[in-house]
UniProtKB/TrEMBL annotation, chain A:
Residues covered by the ABC transporter domain: 9-248, 262-505
Name assigned to this protein: Sugar ABC transporter ATP-binding protein
Entry-linked PROSITE patterns: ABC_TRANSPORTER_1, ABC_TRANSPORTER_2
Domain of life: Bacteria
Keyword Nucleotide-binding part of the UniProt annotation: yes
Keywords linked to the UniProt accession: ATP-binding, Cell membrane, Membrane, Nucleotide-binding, Repeat, Sugar transport, Translocase, Transport
InterPro entries associated with the record: AAA+_ATPase (IPR003593), ABC_carbohydrate_import_ATPase (IPR050107), ABC_transporter-like_ATP-bd (IPR003439), ABC_transporter-like_CS (IPR017871), P-loop_NTPase (IPR027417)
Pfam families found in the cross-reference section: ABC_tran (PF00005)
GO molecular function annotation: ATP binding
Presence of keyword Membrane: yes
Length: 518, 331
């Protein structure tokens, strides 16, 4: 740990009850100036609740807060901001059709001439100065609409906004959930710069590697209770961290390799696919039965766009997709599903689930839509729902509960259940474990492996390299709308994939030199 | 691990499940009972059989429109044209009926015109992708004025006498068409919860994108509710013709608002995906009871309008508030 600054925040006996539910029980937490204190735990462990209590988004049932040595009460986010506490959430509080400068300075009263007119020029100038602090003034234009920025850049704008309020302490809730490795690195650089300026960070995340990379201390919560209070990072290992989080040892997170005797016949063939106005360039690949094919690459490499085109969620310009020899109609998920191609999309809330409808409907409707006849098979639907819930170990209350009643991991299991019921030959899963807790992750890996073992062709798009390496049989690396490299898993490593993902075919040269050396 | 889902499923069953699943229906039903109790104390005429039949004739047309409107609202759309579509169907059917003196021909034309208007709405919304509000607002303007153009502003009153039998026929002192309307409510309610048509309607209202990616033909699934709405406007037109044996170009104007209000009061969300036929039926009855009760008390129609407006907003307030409370206790 770098030299510890003075104590910035001290929280004692923090509790939050929602009726009979104890979201947080008697938790102590502290943060020093210039440190990154990671907050971990499974979904529902109370990380978000604790951050929200500190940021004034929720008020505690019990507990005391001290900020900068003085006791404080934080009833609203505005009060928190005034004290110097800012929170950057997963859902940004920003306005997409306003400029970067407007987003940053919207709440600053001194930016308004005579208290009414927003001083655009001054705001843009100050924004540029703030961005310069992080060497971002070249890549982010203060006058650009926020919607034209990448997710990572938007995230950085949020942090800059916090800095503009002179925040002493910034809470980051899953800051890298939708960032590629390289973008995350950029974000970390910003964090490191601010650490030097004695800003303290609370980092809420699921990702192990970044905790080890950037945190100084770690606190782990389980079921609303403190299990590991502020331990220095040097004392932690991945194993001890997992043990603290789930309360049991996970022998092999990605599960054993499941052997299968399936003939690895080609089942999906994509030929010369071009689309998205020239972004997807002449893509051809095949995927085989009994295998998990991974698609790696940075965010924006075109993996999601490619898979959406293959499945038919979006149309494409030219090329062809063959499933088991049959040419699939483009832009029609309906025919794809009919011939046995299913896809669980990246954004399960906006594209996968019917949040305000029942679980039985969420689980069964893709299957039922394919069936002939107009009358719903209520009985078999109920049986299917219960069968899938058991198979996936989905924690559901009642099959008539709404989709929104489930946690992220269980929602993802419902989405996968829905697709499995359509009996696909090929299943595409885009970011299968984004934002879900560790136990559910392990469950999902097991399921995907078993599916492949039973002869299905599974395609996984993932930004988490350990995940690709842990479960896939082969990897395609994409960059700028092209497949730049195809590797067997035995010859893949995080370094090699990253090299191709960031450099494209140019990595070939380095790669061959490395292999020569080896 | 075997099987948490089953066990807790059983634990939740029975009364508790009925209460959670029919929360908004129960809410409106309680309001209805309370209102009826108050009015029957204030006016001895309210709970008489005669008044009940009268009440039913008041709600029948709006009820028919509300059935169709519910389908459209569930998709997250809105049909502002139902009232005037009914007016136009009435006019077209009436003109055919008056000139041919053939009742069946008139009825078929009325139903066909209603269906046609609905299909055009549905095509423009579902296949072309225009916003429902604008499309049906346009259709409302077209049908309202086409009405006057067709008849030159003068009504039709030489419909064959036989048409009256449709609404006059009685069994056990109850008009047959009341029973038919109830059966239509039951039938369409059954369709909503037991057929693919119904499920697709809910699915596209809840999340159109997810529905499309799951293989639903979202264009067709969007069109059909509008077609149903148009068809029910046609059925409403037949009832109107029969009841008065005459057609006035003013028929139907403004009825769409009553139909939408009845759906909303019955727990239907304008955002789509939420609502039920039972709730809509109770909503229709409640709205009719309110104006009927106020009539009996001699309240001026202007105050009735104010009251109904307040009821709609009040119901939404309660709904939003209870949703918030539930949301909090859930976390």
């Amino acid at each position: 740990m770098e030299s510890r600054g003075t104590l910035l925040l001290k929280a004692e006996g923090m509790s939050k009850f929602y009726g009979p539910v104890h979201a947080l029980e008697d938790v102590n937490f502290d943060l020093y100036r210039g440190e990154v204190h990671a907050l971990m735990g499974e979904n529902g462990a109370g990380k978000s609740t604790l951050s929200k209590l500190i940021a004034g988004i929720e008020t505690p049932t019990a507990g005391k807060l001290e900020f900068d040595g003085k006791p404080v009460v934080i009833p609203t986010p505005q009060v928190a901001l005034k004290l110097g506490i800012a929170m950057v959430t997963q859902e940004f509080n920003s306005i997409p059709h306003m400029t970067v400068a407007e987003n940053i300075f919207l709440g600053h009263s001194e930016m308004y001439k005579k208290g009414i007119y927003f001083d655009k020029h001054r705001a843009e100038k100050e924004t540029r100065e703030l961005l310069k602090l992080f060497d971002m003034d070249e890549s982010i234009n203060p006058a650009a609409k926020l919607s034209t920025l990448s997710v990572a850049e938007q995230q950085i704008v949020e942090i800059v906004k916090a800095v503009s309020y002179n925040a002493q302490m910034i809470i980051l809730d899953e800051p890298t959930a939708s960032l590629s490795n390289m973008e995350a690195q950029r974000l970390f650089q910003v964090i490191r710069d601010l650490k030097k300026k004695q800003v303290g960070f609370i980092l809420v995340t699921h990702r192990f590697n970044e905790i080890f990379e950037i945190s100084d201390r770690i606190t782990v919560l389980r079921d609303g209770k403190l299990v590991l209070p502020g331990a220095p990072m040097e004392e932690m290992t991945e194993q001890s961290l997992v043990r603290a989080m789930v309360g049991r040892e996970m022998v092999n997170f990605y599960g054993e390799k499941v052997e299968n005797t399936v003939q690895h016949d080609e089942i999906l063939r994509v030929e010369h696919l071009c689309g998205r106005g020239g972004f997807l360039k002449d893509i051809s690949f095949v995927a085989r039965k009994g295998e998990i094919t991974g698609f790696a690459g940075l965010v924006g490499a075109g993996r999601t766009e490619l898979m959406r085109a293959v499945f038919g969620a979006d149309s494409y310009d030219s090329g062809a997709v063959y499933l088991d020899g049959v040419s699939l109609k483009k832009g029609s998920p309906r025919t794809s599903i009919k011939y046995g191609l299913s896809m669980a999309t990246e954004d399960r809330k906006s594209e996968g689930l019917l949040l305000d409808l029942s679980l039985i409907m969420n689980t069964c409707y893709a299957k039922t839509v394919q069936k002939k006849g107009w009358i719903l098979p209520h009985k078999s639907e109920k049986a299917d729902t219960l069968k899938m819930a058991e198979m996936f170990r989905t924690k559901i209350g009642n099959i008539h509960d709404k989709g929104s009643s489930l946690s992220g991991g269980n929602q993802q299991k419902i989405v996968l259940s829905k697709w499995l019921l359509t009996n696909p030959k090929v299943l595409i899963v885009d970011e299968p474990t984004r934002g879900i807790d560790i136990a559910a992750k392990a469950d999902i890996y097991t399921i995907l492996k078993n599916l492949a073992a039973s002869g299905m062709c599974v395609i996984v798009v993932s930004s988490e390299l350990p995940e690709i390496l842990g479960i896939c049989d082969r990897v395609m690396v994409m960059k700028d709308g092209e497949i730049v490299k195809h590797m067997e898993i035995s010859e893949a490593s995080e370094e090699r994939i990253m090299a191709y993902a960031s450099l494209g075919r140019a990595a070939e040269k380095i790669d061959s030199e490395e292999t020569m050396k080896a | 691990m075997k099987d948490t889902a089953l066990k807790s499923g059983a634990r939740h069953s029975g009364l508790q499940m009925v209460l959670t699943n029919y929360r908004s229906e129960i809410g409106v039903f309680v309001a209805l009972i309370l209102y009826c109790a108050v009015i029957s104390v204030l006016s001895p005429h309210f709970l008489t059989g005669r008044n009940m039949l009268n009440l039913f004739s008041q709600l029948s047309v709006v009820g028919l429109l509300a059935i169709g409107e519910l389908f459209v609202l569930l998709t997250g759309g809105i049909d502002l044209s139902v009232g005037n579509t009914m007016g136009l169907s009435c006019m077209a059917g009436g003109m055919v009926m008056a000139s041919t003196q053939n009742i069946a021909a008139g009825i078929i034309v009325a139903l066909a015109i209603g269906l046609l208007c609905g299909v055009v709405n549905g095509y423009l919304v579902g296949y072309v992708g225009l916003p429902a509000f604008i499309v049906t607002l346009g259709m409302m303007g077209i049908t309202r004025n086409a009405d006057y153009l067709m008849c030159g502003g003068i009504g039709i009153n030489n419909l064959p006498e036989g048409i009256k039998m449709l609404t006059k026929a009685k069994v056990l002192g109850i008009n047959v068409y009341y029973i038919i309307i109830i059966l239509l409510f039951i039938l369409m309610g059954w369709i909503l919860s037991n057929t693919k048509l119904g499920r697709n309607t809910y699915a596209i209202g809840s999340n159109k994108n997810a529905a499309r990616l799951s293989g639903v033909n979202t264009k067709l699934a969007t069109l059909l509710p509008y077609a149903i709405s148009g068809l029910f406007a046609g059925i409403g037109a037949v009832i109107l013709m029969s009841r008065f044996a005459a057609v006035d170009p003013n028929y139907g104007s403004g009825n769409e608002m009553n139909a939408i209000a009845a759906c909303v009061v019955g727990g239907t969300s304008l955002a789509g995906g939420k609502g039920s036929m039972l709730g809509t039926f109770i909503g229709v009855v409640l709205m009719a009871c309110i104006s009927n009760g106020l009539d009996l008390l001699g309240v001026s129609p202007y105050w009735q309008g104010v009251t109904i407006g307040c009821v709609i907003i009040g119901v939404l307030l309660i709904e939003t508030y209870s949703e918030k409370v539930r949301g909090k206790s859930k976390k």
